[in-house]
Design goal:
- This protein is an all-alpha fold.
- The chain has one domain.
- Helix content is about 35%, strand content about 0%.
- The protein is globular.
- The mean pLDDT is about 90.
């Protein structure tokens, strides 16, 4: 977690990669939904694991999601020799919305 850099300054407060967010197993059982914006303090690997537990057949199977993320991180490390957490952070930055202005024109009589 020490050498992970967040290049987008707008996301620095919302991606938990600081030393206090460093966990060995992404299963903290923290109550991150109790207050507004507290889920930003959740470790980023645990947020990825929680996002994988969607759809009816995967609800509540956190250990399965943890195992999937662990194997994916091992594959990323073996194939690219990069820090897997840095790869996850870069993917989150690429998936974020870009600011843009749009012109709305209504056609009428």
């Amino acid at each position: 977690y020490e050498d992970v850099e967040i290049n987008d300054i707008s996301l620095e407060d919302y991606i938990g990669v600081k030393s206090k967010h460093a966990v060995y197993v992404p299963h903290t059982a923290g109550r991150y939904a109790q207050k507004r914006f507290r889920k930003a303090q959740c470790p980023i690997t645990e947020r990825l694991v929680n996002a994988l537990m969607m759809h009816g057949r995967n609800n509540g199977k956190k250990l399965m999601a943890v195992r999937i993320v662990k194997h994916a991180m091992d594959i990323i490390h073996l194939l690219s020799d990069q820090n897997p957490i840095q790869v996850i952070v870069d993917a989150i930055i690429n998936a974020g919305p870009r600011e843009d202005a749009t012109r709305v024109v209504f056609a009428g009589v």
